[in-house]
Amino acid sequence: MDVVIIMNDIELRIQAVIDKLRPFLMSDGGMIDFIKFEDGICYVRLSGACAGCSLIEYTLKDGIELAITSEVPEVVEVRNVTD
User: 0.85 cut: is pTM over it?
Assistant: First the structure.
C-alpha cells in the first residue's frame, strides 16, 4: 500500500527552501531531509558528511535556520533529528 503524505502550506514553503539548500550540502557530501513542522519548530535530518561534521551546529543555525526562518516566518527554530 502506498503512503500519501499531504503537506500544508507552511510545510510546502519549508520544503521549497530545503530544496534550494540541498545542492550546497550535497556538494560537500551532505544531505538534508525535512521531517516535520510542529509548534513553530522545523525538524530536519542532516546526514552524509554533515552527520559527522564538527561544524554541524553552525550549518544548522547560521545557514539552514537563517534561510528557513527568513522565508517562512512561522518557523521560529530548526532542529536536527538524530534518531
Answer: yes
